[in-house]
Amino acid sequence: MTLIKSISGIRGTIGGRPSENLTPIDAVKFAAAYGSWLKNNHTGEATKVVVGRDARISGSMIQQLVMNTLIGLGIDVIDLDLSTTPTVEVAVPMEKAQGGIILTASHNPKQWNALKLLNEKGEFLSGAEGAEILEMAEKADFDFAEVDSLGTIKPAIHYIDTHIEEVVMLPLVDVEKVAAANFTVAVDGVNSTGGIAIPKLLKRMGVNVIELYCEPTGHFPHNPEPLKEHLTEISNLVMEKKADLGVVVDPDVDRLAFISEDGEMFGEEYTLVACADYVLGKTPGNTVSNLSSSRALRDITQKHGGTYQASAVGEVNVVQLMKDTNAIIGGEGNGGIIYPELHYGRDSLVGVALFLTFLAEKKMKVSELRKSYPAYFMSKNKIELTPELDVDKILQEVEQKYSGEEVSTIDGVKIDFPNHWVHLRKSNTEPIIRIYTEARSQQEADDVAKKMIGEIKEIANL
């Protein structure tokens, strides 16, 4: 069992012992640290926090602990209850709140939960802010409110509907065009809140919906990470029902994958590519994804006359570079769409609406759209090292060896070759190097990875 404290929040498995797992004591301590940090940074004004959760089994328990801790600090809580990560992000500025907490462990299995923290813009905290909160949690130096100054809880369960209306009002979302296309779409909501939000959005856009695992029980029927090997049922359902498309989200609805009408994966990496192709075709501009995302986004961006840039891995890094470069769309290759026209956060609802509008406009099958994009293939591997090895030194030697190529060191070492790339990142929690490669064929991507693993072993004398 595990408790992971990082600058982006606290994540762990339910049960066990305090400080070793995500127990009620840890949830209270971390919520108190965040609430205290907010009050310190918003002195002289009433503090308000939006709280929402995915449907995992421990969600209600953790939510009650978190909300009542905030009340004890004199903070007012806007309770979204069952919600999605992007919905909470949208709600924070709408409520003029000072922050937000999302209770979700994203794509992790049901025994996990987490507290993810937002600022007053509904965006994830910076690394420095997260570090401050971790330090406050360790010191446990909290000043709780007296009885006449306790906070309140205000239910606000309408926000998924509000979020949907904000999405369909976007200028590049055409509800009438989508409705006229008479699409049939199968949805796998993995028995979490995507099973509420995605069917509602689709019906609002005039789409015929086939639901699979859309009851928000928190009992995930398969591994909740939306990868091909976990999605055989939705793939079969799309073909059986002759659906135009399959839509798959993770438990908190910030990762989006599509299934083509032939039951094949559209490819998580290509979710962002397709949405960017549509947006750039209407509103030319720049794009951003992280260093481990497909080169296909760069190709599409350049086709539309824009500039592509890559950030360090992590949503907060993608968002910052998007702001710095005035990017009009960006995200992560894991199916995360960030469209600033609505908000700076990965949002599957926005992704679905943009994709369907694009599909209706193109009047082509999903498989045909996929074939229209550059074909890239990824290989994701890792090499385990002994704890005494200096991982940073190994990465420096790789960097020096390939100094004649295009090399980025903003997040590990990424080497861009003319026809492929390699990205090496060290783990912060264990002695391993993650090795991501992309090439024009799966065989080439795998071969490049094997070659790099051999070179690392040679450098490390393994």
Automatic annotation (TrEMBL):
<dbReference type="InterPro" id="IPR050060">
    <property type="entry name" value="Phosphoglucosamine_mutase"/>
</dbReference>
<feature type="domain" description="Alpha-D-phosphohexomutase alpha/beta/alpha">
    <location>
        <begin position="8"/>
        <end position="142"/>
    </location>
</feature>
<keyword id="KW-0597">Phosphoprotein</keyword>
<dbReference type="Pfam" id="PF02879">
    <property type="entry name" value="PGM_PMM_II"/>
</dbReference>
<keyword id="KW-0460">Magnesium</keyword>
<feature type="domain" description="Alpha-D-phosphohexomutase alpha/beta/alpha">
    <location>
        <begin position="270"/>
        <end position="374"/>
    </location>
</feature>
<dbReference type="Pfam" id="PF02880">
    <property type="entry name" value="PGM_PMM_III"/>
</dbReference>
<dbReference type="InterPro" id="IPR036900">
    <property type="entry name" value="A-D-PHexomutase_C_sf"/>
</dbReference>
<dbReference type="InterPro" id="IPR016055">
    <property type="entry name" value="A-D-PHexomutase_a/b/a-I/II/III"/>
</dbReference>
<dbReference type="InterPro" id="IPR016066">
    <property type="entry name" value="A-D-PHexomutase_CS"/>
</dbReference>
<dbReference type="InterPro" id="IPR005845">
    <property type="entry name" value="A-D-PHexomutase_a/b/a-II"/>
</dbReference>
<dbReference type="InterPro" id="IPR005846">
    <property type="entry name" value="A-D-PHexomutase_a/b/a-III"/>
</dbReference>
<dbReference type="InterPro" id="IPR005841">
    <property type="entry name" value="Alpha-D-phosphohexomutase_SF"/>
</dbReference>
<feature type="domain" description="Alpha-D-phosphohexomutase alpha/beta/alpha">
    <location>
        <begin position="173"/>
        <end position="263"/>
    </location>
</feature>
<dbReference type="InterPro" id="IPR005844">
    <property type="entry name" value="A-D-PHexomutase_a/b/a-I"/>
</dbReference>
<feature type="domain" description="Alpha-D-phosphohexomutase C-terminal">
    <location>
        <begin position="395"/>
        <end position="452"/>
    </location>
</feature>
<protein>
    <submittedName>
        <fullName>Phosphoglucosamine mutase</fullName>
        <ecNumber>5.4.2.10</ecNumber>
    </submittedName>
</protein>
<keyword id="KW-0479">Metal-binding</keyword>
<dbReference type="GO" id="GO:0008966">
    <property type="term" value="F:phosphoglucosamine mutase activity"/>
</dbReference>
<dbReference type="Pfam" id="PF02878">
    <property type="entry name" value="PGM_PMM_I"/>
</dbReference>
<dbReference type="InterPro" id="IPR005843">
    <property type="entry name" value="A-D-PHexomutase_C"/>
</dbReference>
<dbReference type="Pfam" id="PF00408">
    <property type="entry name" value="PGM_PMM_IV"/>
</dbReference>
<comment type="similarity">
    <text>Belongs to the phosphohexose mutase family.</text>
</comment>
<keyword id="KW-0413">Isomerase</keyword>
<dbReference type="InterPro" id="IPR024086">
    <property type="entry name" value="GlmM_arc-type"/>
</dbReference>
